[in-house]
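User: Could you check the structure of this?
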Amino acid sequence: ILAAVKGQCFFYTVVSGDTCTTIGNRFGVSANSIIAANPQVNAGCTNLVPGEVSVLCSIR
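Assistant: Sure, the predicted structure tokens are below.
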């Protein structure tokens, strides 16, 4: 995934070492938006699993 259009959602596969903050910084989304769009992610974003697919919605 290289870029996203504002308001567009796309899928991202979690890799080892990812946090909601690092994913958010990489793709221009907030950690809170990642948590909101992914019910499997807990409020502290401490349960990301490598290989799990998450939804990201661009705010750029």
